[in-house]
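Its record is quoted verbatim for completeness.
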Amino acid sequence: MRIKVSGLLSRASLVALCITGAGSYAMAGAGMKGPHPEHARLMPPPLMDGMFFDGMRKGEMPDMAKVEGTLARLSKELELDSETRIKVFTVLEKGNEEIKSLEKQLVSLERQMHRLTPSDEKYLEKVGESAAKQADLVKDLIKVKAKNKAALFAVLSSEQQTAYLELSERRPHRIGPKKRLPFEEPKKKPL
């Protein structure tokens, strides 16, 4: 992001630019060395282009975000005590590691397949081999997810198991106002 500096910038506008992270460009254009020492600590750390904090790229989730989100949802919905919560966390953590490794292998196979071009030797055979490997990985992924669900189910009590089954049947996008059928007239609000 480049900022054109025309004329003189006031100290307050430079401080605002420093706090928002655009200050280094503005100060370089204005011929200044850097922010006032008081405000230097308020500047965000320099990031590489397209990077978020902690070296993460846009669209990536932290490794444990899915586990923590699932754990928070389950503990809220199923009212887990601390001991059961720890057991559920270990099950989710182990399952997450296996799933992540399988997903990485799947993505690398897909990339290899997309790098092939029709002009390559034995193009159709290579695509077929890659598709077969991907199908095997998807089968393994389904098995791992089923194994993790069974391990999670074994940790829960009988009441929590029934609540878990109800929770897994319910989809987040299905919660909310009932959609009207196409032939139904919308209800008119009183004026």
Q: What stands out?
A: DSSP finds seven helices and no strands in the chain. The longest helix spans residues 82-115.
